[in-house]
Structures are given as C-alpha cells and as structure tokens.
Model the fold of this input.
Amino acid sequence: MQTIKHALLAMAALALVAPGAARAADSSCEQVKHDNKVIGTLFGAAAGAFLGGAVAGHGHKGDGALVGAAGGAVVGNQMSRSKQPCGQPAPQPVAYVQPAPPPPTYAPTTITMWHDHYGRTCTRREETYYAADGSPVTRTTERCEP
Done:
C-alpha cells in the first residue's frame, strides 16, 4: 500500500512539473494540447489507482490499483482532448435576441347591468382574450339574479 501511495505522489508531482517545463520550450497550440492530454492522463491514472485500490478485494489492492490506473489513464486522456483544431479561432457565441413579449391574455372586461321586465338585476359581461395566434376572441355571458 505504501508503494501505491508513493507512486500516486510521484505521478501528481510529475503532472505539475512536466507540462510547465515543456511549455517553457514551446508554447504553440499543439504543445498546449499535448500538455493538457498529459495532465489528463496522469490525473486519470491517479484517480483510477485510488478508486481501483479502494474497490479491490482484500489481498488484491495492488492489482485493483493497477487496473484502475490503466482505466483512469485512458479516461483522463480522452476527457482532456481538445476538439478545437489549431490555427482556427474559437467559434464566437451567437447573440441571443429576446423575443417580443406576447400580447396580453385578456383585454379589459365590459360589464353592463340592467333590470329586466320581471324586476331582476341582470348583467352582461363581455370578455376579450387573445388566442394562441394573437387574434382577439370576444366571449359574452348574461346572467340574471332574482
């Protein structure tokens, strides 16, 4: 278990030092992409070794760490790959234009009151609302109360 800890510490130190030294020599796009893949591979291997050792059965912690390190290295390498080719500018975000607000759902309601020939109080309610296509629709309801 001690050797696994030392190996993980060595990989972490290498991940921090190696890309910086290489970048000092060449800071081209290709070099930066390579450095990112190296860092991703090393961190993936370290995380995989840790998880593999933790999951492995008793007496097989070293084997689990080795298998986890191999799998983690592959996953870390693939996750750190850049999809942007060198020499081409990154795509600019498209400006979002806010759509116009929808028309109001309801227009003012008109209420008319009168007394019919039976002496009841009646009301007529005219409501205008807008359909989904924006066209106005008027609904009229009449009600008489004793």
Observations:
- The radius of gyration is 36 Å.
- The chain has two domains: 2-79, 110-145.
- The chain has three helices and three strands.
